[in-house]
Specification:
It is built from ten helices and seven strands. By secondary structure, it is an alpha/beta fold.
Length: 231
């Protein structure tokens, strides 16, 4: 056992594991994100605020039971780095870890802790093939495990390969997302409380389009959770 420990320490010295938020070397018992970042990332605590800014963004547009984001997003900040690692550097495990962190928060919430299913915003099959995984699904898996519920991957379907939302105006984002999503099996979601999840919410146009498709299901109640909120 000692030899194995020495070998592990030697390998770690040559090829140190780095924090996905700050890039510093991880030490023993740290996993993916260093302790300093875990304590000091910009948490929103929206799980304690039913009328938080994400929830207000959807008022008058779609009926939600609740809305939540784990972090505030700032350009060039550590949260942006985490999401970049998740989406573009083949680090799906970061999404899973953030889902566990978010799930632990939601378990403490009085209005966002009981769900029948967690559904990620889907990627179009062409983008999924290119990336190899859906970053929102990675987050959803961690959330569902922490909340002791199921992930439903293939029921909410993206039918069109839309252009990226980056650099689009609020109006253009809404137009870009019209009639993009559909529900494959309506009966499977009838009378369920669903948690819809995505990586970042900005204008909310993608989540709103998903919500409209899901809320057409009879008796369905809907809440939203994201990794980050960007103004």
């Amino acid at each position: 056992m000692k030899l194995r420990s020495y070998l592990a320490d030697f390998v770690a010295l040559l090829f140190p594991e780095l924090c996905h938020a700050c890039g510093q070397s991880l030490v023993a018992h740290e996993d993916l994100i260093c302790t300093d970042c875990l304590y000091n990332l910009p948490y929103t605590n929206f799980h304690q605020q039913p009328d938080n800014i994400v929830a207000r963004q959807f008022w008058g547009k779609v009926k939600l039971n609740g809305a939540y984001a784990l972090f505030y997003f700032t350009k060039g900040g550590k949260v942006q780095q985490l999401i970049h690692q998740l989406k573009y550097n083949n680090a799906p495990m970061v999404g899973n870890k953030l889902g566990h962190i978010a799930g632990a928060q939601l378990m403490k919430s009085e209005h966002l802790n009981m769900f029948d299913a967690v559904i990620p915003v889907p990627l179009h099959k062409s983008r999924l093939r290119k990336r190899g995984y859906n970053q929102s699904a990675c987050f959803a898996e961690g959330l569902a495990e922490a909340l002791n519920t199921a992930v439903v991957i293939n029921n909410l379907i993206r039918t069109k390969a839309t252009a990226t939302q980056t650099h689009k105006s609020r109006f253009d984002r809404a137009v870009n997302m019209q009639d993009v999503f559909t529900v494959a099996d309506i009966k499977a979601l009838a009378d369920k409380h669903v948690l819809l999840v995505d990586d970042v919410v900005t204008t909310g146009s993608t989540l709103e389009a998903c919500a409209q498709a899901l809320l057409a299901v009879p008796g369905l109640k809907l809440s939203i959770a994201t990794i980050a909120y960007a103004e």
